[in-house]
Amino acid sequence: MLMHGSGLTHIVWSLHEQFYATQGYNVLSVDLPGHGTSEGPSLKSIEDMSSWVKNFMDVLKIKKIIIIGHSQGCLVGIDFASKFPEHISGLVLVAGSYKMPVNQDLIDLAEAGDDKAILLMMKWGYEGSKAFIGGNPVKKIINSSREIIEILSVDLKACNNYKSGKESLEKINCATLCIFGDLDKMVPLKVGNKMSELIKNSENKVISDCGHMIIFEKAFEMREIVKEFILKIKNEKI
Predict the structure, then answer these.
(1) How do residues 99-111 score in pLDDT, each as one tens digit?
(2) What is the pLDDT of residue 129?
(3) How far apart are alpha carbons 147 and 36 in whole angstroms?
């Protein structure tokens, strides 16, 4: 299951979905409620999001998953793994930590529907001024005042309010892979390393010359790292 970050949708995984599918895996690239093509209001807490994942699995009669989460998606993965250990076989945390405080200026701009919130996200989220074919994907996904207020703002506050991350980490028993960008401004490497040290069965991979948006910036390198990790999980079960 591929879990997107704040204000985003499953579209961010476009360079990953088909790759994992061609490796023989069933891939669920989801939109949280209120995001993308999912109906309903955005969920207001990380805890609600992880419970939604479990309900989603129940509806589809899925017993066990590997969660690959980016940024906010890491918090969802951490919370899920701590609450439903029997339903997760692996966890991949990409550019995330167990706590993700959000700058109050960014929250205020998002609550006001100000597109400067998107500009700040892009400024902090990317290493340098990277160009993307067809334009910046974040700007294309969050492109209206309504989406900023009703989706991005809610997500940012959910991240800011999640306080049980450290306690949740200590409950994680599944194999865990932490992937960081060495130039990440949102989750500096020292913060990421501190998180991985608190997870019993974890390993780290650091991608060079990369910021917070690893899923775009170094998609091809990241997915090869994830592929090796999943194969390791599979082989250990045989």
Answers:
(1) 999 999 999 999 9
(2) 46
(3) 10
Q: What residue ranges do the domains of the chain occupy?
A: 2-99+163-237
Instruction: Give dist(CA 16, CA 95) in Å, integer.
Output: 16
**CATH fold for the domain made of 2-99+163-237:** Rossmann fold (3.40.50)
**Alpha-carbon distance 94 to 209, whole Å?**
15
Query: What is the secondary structure of 137-184 as a DSSP string?
Result: HHHHHS-SHHHIIIIIHHHHHHHHH---HHHHHTT--SEEEEEEETT-
- Name the DSSP letter for residue 114: -
C-alpha distance from residue 92 to each of 119, 131, 223 (Å) = 27, 26, 11
Q: What is the pLDDT of residue 138?
A: 80
Q: How far apart are CA 190 and CA 67, in angstroms?
A: 23
In this prediction, the residues of the chain whose per-residue pLDDT falls under 70 are 127-136, 237-238
Q: Is the pTM of this model over 0.85?
A: yes
